[in-house]
Write a structure and sequence with these properties.
single chain; nine-stranded mixed β-sheet; D-amino Acid Aminotransferase, Chain A, domain 2; about 280 residues; globular; binds N-(5'-phosphopyridoxyl)-D-alanine; alpha+beta; about 30% helix; D-amino Acid Aminotransferase, Chain A, domain 1; six-stranded antiparallel β-sheet
């Protein structure tokens, strides 16, 4: 893992040789954004969408994009070529750079750009066969969950609560609405219709979420982007979570209650199969 190909401020260096100043605002303040994109068979998946979201994240926190679109594309291409693996998770982080510790934006500081390519973790067959468990968690995050910021403490605490409850993911609940997972988007299925929270300030606009909605269009399955009452979690036919790492994963228990018949559902199976076909 330590010898994973990496990139730091214009140079390609093995991950183990990357050095970052403790005065980097990413380290001191969590003042930065990130992006994570999957690569299948040496080809970046939905690259344009990921690079658009990266650009938007920088703009929203007022970091000037240090690279052109072409430069971002070749950075990713180079990491893919340097890796020994064909399926990768590429992580990119941009921080406001190095400056004496002070909350206000530093003048004339260069953004720090870091990226690394790691093997894409495989979704466990057991999770696909039996589905995963979820818990619900009070959403204590800020009001701009649409920006992919590196300050993820609330997400980390929620996810850790899930793991300690032998669950795979925590579903963030705010004002009695089920929004998304700590590191995934949420889909709730009732009477043949799929529901997911709209793309507003309370959820991350997941690239996998959009891909799954495209697959639903193709399959002719009805869906609505609307708020989801928390109690729907306990009376649904199916629950799915989506992310670049988990793809589309069925959940068969939430807060220790069994979802429907306790098995991954029929609509999930159709969507998952098409996902596998389309992703390559
Ligand atoms: N997280 N919501 C949150 C809060 C997330 O952190 C993520 C992804 C998603 C799904 O987004 P996408 O489909 O674009 O991966 C939704 C990544 C995987 C992470 O933090 O590692």
């Amino acid at each position: 893992m330590n010898s994973s190909p990496a990139f730091l401020n214009g140079e390609y260096v093995p991950l183990k040789d990357c050095k970052i100043s403790p005065l980097d605002r990413g380290f001191i303040f969590g003042d930065g954004i990130y992006e994570l994109l999957p690569v299948y068979e040496n080809k970046a998946f939905y690259l344009d969408q990921h690079l658009q979201r990266l650009q938007r994240s920088m703009a929203e926190i007022r970091i000037k994009n240090p690279y052109s679109l072409n430069e971002w594309q070749s950075l990713i291409e180079n990491l893919i070529q340097q890796s020994d693996h064909d399926d990768l998770a590429i992580y990119i982080q941009v921080t406001r750079g190095i400056a004496p510790r002070d909350h206000i934006f530093p003048q004339a500081t260069q953004a720090t750009v870091f990226a690394m390519a790691n093997p894409l973790p495989k979704v466990a067959e057991e999770q696909l066969q039996n589905g995963v468990e979820l818990i619900t968690s009070d959403d204590i995050r800020w009001q701009r969950c649409d920006i992919k910021v590196i300050s993820l403490l609330a997400n980390i605490l929620a996810r850790q609560d899930a793991i300690e409850a032998s669950a795979a993911e925590a579903i963030m609940v705010r004002d009695d609405h089920a929004l998304e997972g700590a590191a995934s988007n949420l889909f709730v299925i009732r009477d043949g219709t799929v529901y997911t929270h709209p793309k507003d300030n309370l959820v991350l606009p997941g690239i996998t979420r959009d891909f799954v909605l495209e697959l639903l269009d193709e399959l002719g399955i009805e869906y609505h982007e609307q708020v989801i009452p928390k109690e729907w979690l306990y009376s649904s036919d199916e629950l799915w979570i989506t992310s670049s790492i988990k793809e589309v994963l069925p959940a068969t228990k939430i807060d220790q209650k069994v979802v429907a018949d306790g098995k991954p559902g029929e609509l999930w199976r159709k969507t998952y199969d098409l996902y596998q076909e389309r992703k390559r």
